[in-house]
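ESCALATION

Customer reports they have been waiting on this structure for their group meeting. Please prioritize. Original submission:
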Amino acid sequence: MASGALYSVILAGGSGTRLWPLSRAGHPKFLHALTGTPASLLQSTANRLAPLSGPDRTFVVTGASHAAAVARQLPDLPDSNLLVEPSPRDSCAAIGLAAAVIVRRDPEAVMGSFAADHIVRDQSAFTAAIRAAVRGAQSGQLMTVGITPTQAETGYGYLRCGRRVDDDVLTVAEFKEKPTREIAEKYLALKKKHLAELQQLQVEPSVMP
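Update from on-call: job pushed to the front of the queue and completed.
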């Protein structure tokens, strides 16, 4: 079981196609300020994680074409915590790379992965959810974070909730990746039992495949 502190891994990849032409391959969405503040989505993510892990325990996994921009936007991030993929892979590969680095630094670590382009309005609720997930990971559980869906969305995964473990934690009975519109609408109608997954994973790095 892990007994150490949380190490946050920010996944900062993408081809810059979703918000084209504002977002381009060399300057994807997470490098833009889109929330009405001067901070980019990447900077907002790092600021959100600061109370939980701080720069020394925060890693960013990004592509070679984005590494310089990420370093400029996060000047407090240690050089050794910027992990550059030589070629684009999926999220699983990026998480695995970070896990391999973190477990060498701290075998007792708990690792959490976070997308660089999420918008979170309630910082206190986010912090409380991640701390609850860290406690679960420290007891040997594989943890993820879900939110109550507000619309039927086919581009994300859904969690079907199982039994309640405590006030903050439920087991996952089933995971459904990118459902059809019809199934997503059913999940929305049953939103007390189905949550949208945030792709945020809390786990001991040593259990990563």
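Sent to customer with the following note: The longest helix spans residues 123-138.
Escalation resolved.
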